[in-house]
Design a protein that fits this description.
The chain is built from four helices and no strands. By secondary structure, it is mainly alpha-helical. The N and C termini lie far apart (86 Å).
């Protein structure tokens, strides 16, 4: 990630007062990475990253994370919990109430 991006992420914490987990969620970056950036800026050791990442690569990474999240949500909905009954343990209506049992 570019140095400017890391500085902006750290500013969200130091100047805007957001928490590290909140910034991590907003940027889709692990909170440990954000914490490392904040610590590096505080000590003055934040260096420019060795790997140059283009905008397209960042978008691909974001889309891969989104696909993984949606796949997990789909799998959860597809495979419901086995310990929950499919139907309630009692009838929702009684068939007796529909028939007149009075034989007068």
């Amino acid at each position: 990630m570019p140095k400017e991006f890391k500085e902006e992420a750290a500013k969200m914490i130091t100047e805007q007062g957001l928490s590290i987990p909140e910034v991590g969620r907003r940027l889709s970056i692990p909170k440990s990475t954000i914490a490392n950036w904040v610590r590096a800026i505080a000590t003055g050791t934040l260096a420019k990253s060795k790997k140059v990442v283009s905008g397209e690569e960042m978008e691909v990474a974001r889309l891969k994370r989104e696909i993984a999240e949606l796949t997990m949500e789909r799998d959860i909905l597809k495979n419901p919990r086995k310990d929950l009954p499919l139907f309630p343990p009692f009838p929702l209506f009684s068939p007796v109430c529909f028939f007149n049992t009075d034989t007068r």
